[in-house]
Amino acid sequence: MFRLLTSCWSRLKTTEETQRHVAIIIIGLDNSSKTVLVEAFQRVSVYDLKGDMQGREIWPNYYAQAHGLVFVLDSSDWERMQEVKVLLPNLLSDERVAGKPILLLANKQDKTGALPPGDITDYLLLERLMNENKSPCQVEPCSVIKDLQRRSHQPIVDGLHWLLSAIREKYEELCTHQQPLPPTIAASRGTRGFEERSLADRCRVASVSFATQMGMSKENRQHVGQHSMEPKPLKSILLKEGVRIRPKKNVSVTFALDEPMEEAKGQKENGHLGLRGDVTGQSLMKPLEPVTFNRELKRKMKEHQKKHLISLL
Ligand SMILES: Nc1nc2c(ncn2[C@@H]2O[C@H](COP(=O)(O)OP(=O)(O)OP(=O)(O)O)[C@@H](O)[C@H]2O)c(=O)[nH]1
């Protein structure tokens, strides 16, 4: 299986060989690829939260627990970009999220018409949002599926590396703000098969510890993309030494962080947009490359907004 976080962790070495636990939540609209991405994560607590309307109600339960966030979006679905645009300000201004580093994965870049990161940044007014909420942000264009298939995970590795470095930079501070999961969710951790009807239980959190590398079966991949509001069978997405672990949707996968972290890498060069925040409140966002807004996209967005407004009236 992938060596994604292994390579991230190995690049994140500190002078003091400390062991740290890092919690990251992965969110984004439904069908944006969160589950596919989660396969690639190791040695961090990953909460794979559903992205449909009902699933989004649950996200806030995890905000306080997270040191950082990965927001996944489908760059080829410009119609739903409007939905993200409405959602992001609420997310980023939430007091449990503000100030935390956010990796925005502009996924599905392999698809025709996928928006480049610069256009996405502009359209979502990311720079302004990041400045207002004092959260460091990095936009990373990627194709989760293609990158993982080719085993060339570079954009994802770079993004995760950035996120972990950003977390490391203010780890102590982030830990101060970290709060435990709400009792109902915490109680369900580690109890696979646990099912109830409350909001928290819809999270169906399972906690699984992994010490070794994991893989995903072909059969499991077929489950990816299924949507239902009913409790789903455990989604088998991970393998450990041949023994299948079947975490559910909204699963918490806890890994031991047993590799030391190193000095944060500097800003990256080309191929993505690096946007940084600063808790002191100055020069929070800094695009690394000039952003040219696509006129055609702008026109489409306007058209779409008009339609959207009309449909609301
Ligand atoms: N073209 C393309 N398709 C992708 C890529 N990544 C994922 N997909 C597809 O996108 C669909 C959605 O992936 P999921 O990982 O299930 O999406 P999700 O965000 O977990 O969705 P919810 O669980 O409903 O919130 C699947 O059919 C994937 O095969 C990519 O990089 N390119």
TrEMBL record:
Binding site for GTP: G51, N107, K108, Q109, D110
Keyword GTP-binding in record: yes
Keyword Hydrolase: no
InterPro entries, per database record: Ciliary_GTPase (IPR051995), P-loop_NTPase (IPR027417), Small_GTPase_ARF/SAR (IPR006689)
One record GO biological process: non-motile cilium assembly
Molecular functions per Gene Ontology: GTP binding; GTPase activity
GO CC aspect terms: ciliary membrane; motile cilium; non-motile cilium
Keywords of this entry: GTP-binding, Nucleotide-binding
PANTHER family: ADP-RIBOSYLATION FACTOR-LIKE PROTEIN 13A, ADP-RIBOSYLATION FACTOR-LIKE PROTEIN 13B
Record's protein name: Uncharacterized protein
